[in-house]
Each structure stands twice: as C-alpha cells, then as structure tokens.
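lol forgot to send this yesterday, sorry. struct tokens for the thing we talked abt
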C-alpha cells in the first residue's frame, strides 16, 4: 500500500465529511467526535490493563484511525492543515525538550 502524506489524508478524509448548516454545528461535531473516539482508544487500553481482555491490536488501530479522521476534520474546521499542526507540535517539543526526552517508552 502506498504511503500518503498528511495533506493527502486530510483531502481524502474530507470526502466522507458530514455537511453542516453552519460552522458551530461542525465545531461541536468534531470536538465531541474527537473526544468520543479518544475515549474508545482509552477504553480498549483500560480493559486490557485491567486484565479483562487481550489487547485487540486491530481494534486499537481502527479506533486510532477514527481519532485521526476527526483530527483531520477538526483541522479543516478551524482552518489548519494537519502538516501545519504536526510541524508546530514538533517545534514545541524541540523547545520543551531540546535534548530529547526519555521519560516514556519501554526500557529494553
């Protein structure tokens, strides 16, 4: 499968966008949708860590994709490109942690 850029993803994702009568309704939808999908990711991880379920990696990937879709929609709604948001985030992290940060991850 061909890799796609943020720009291409955002364009393709917009093809499945719901049409709203006004910007406020779209803002409500993307805000709540992004939060809801992030909650589904959290729920999959919570159930796994609580020992109730094996980690369903495919379901997790699917829900992360839903988060990504809502992120693309939120970027469109507020006039950002995903590339712009990603770049700004990397710049913020570089300022905050100029030598990197090793506080997260798995120690080998």
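and heres what i got for the seq, position by position
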């Amino acid at each position: 499968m061909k890799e796609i850029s943020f720009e291409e993803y955002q364009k393709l994702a917009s093809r499945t966008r719901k049409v709203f009568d006004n910007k406020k309704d779209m803002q409500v939808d993307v805000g709540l949708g992004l939060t809801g999908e992030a909650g589904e990711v959290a729920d999959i991880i919570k159930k796994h860590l609580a020992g109730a379920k094996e980690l369903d990696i495919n379901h997790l990937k699917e829900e992360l994709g839903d988060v990504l879709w809502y992120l693309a929609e939120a970027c469109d709604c507020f006039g950002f490109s995903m590339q712009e948001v990603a770049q700004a985030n990397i710049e913020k992290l570089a300022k905050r942690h100029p030598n990197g940060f090793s506080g997260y991850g798995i120690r080998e």
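The chain has one domain: 8-96. anyway ping me if u want another try
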